[in-house]
């Protein structure tokens, strides 16, 4: 998860990348060359607060439509962003944002996924505390004020609550005209959203066929409901894309995930990427285009085979 340790790692990494001018996390302008030619879907790429670029669409991208939605859960009303191809019915995907929550960057990422042929629900995991956007960018979380703002909101999210939310989201999606209920549902999560993908598969094992975690936090721990211990309670196939600095801190996690998947009889791709924690999120100072595109491609491959 984005914590003091991963942030310190990323500070050192970026200091090496930007030895003279500094880097975005220290208040310097983002080097636009790092973000050129992303090739993401329709919408925009948020590279810094108030600064966006217009990437070219993916080859074969479908036109999309979207709407803001509210979903009733056992704990209240959850706001979310629902985006989907303009015509036809499609497999659904629940997208869990990183620690800074639902914002423009994740609307962009959700839209790109929808343009690949999926009905995507980008959720506000903090709905118990406030409607989205909680923050405008990941950089805002990096400030003392941002971290103080999120502390009580993070504390309000529990494993049981996330599983309950996921069940409500699956049920809501199955009631939408844009969703093909004959196909399985997928889940994708970033940072704190990584383990939420596993809990989504636990919430509705019959419906959820795939879960993709990118630089996911706390996937392996000693609690009885550690995500890696829950794989046997699911019927999903998995992608665990791990950041190099997360692996350096907990090198046994990848082995625990592989062993748990094997014992559960679940297909799982577990890979450590040569990139820092947060590398897949397009408004992160640590964003790594090449490795993010590789991870994106692996997610699409997973969804293509597992969401039949």
TrEMBL record:
One of its GO terms (molecular function) is hydrolase activity. Gene3D superfamilies: alpha/beta hydrolase. It comes from the Bacteria. InterPro entries: AB_hydrolase_fold (IPR029058), Dienelactn_hydro (IPR002925), Dienelactone_hydrolase-like (IPR051049), TAT_signal (IPR006311). Residues 79-306 form the Dienelactone hydrolase domain. PROSITE patterns: TAT (PS51318). Keywords: Hydrolase. This is Dienelactone hydrolase family protein. It comes from Novosphingobium olei.
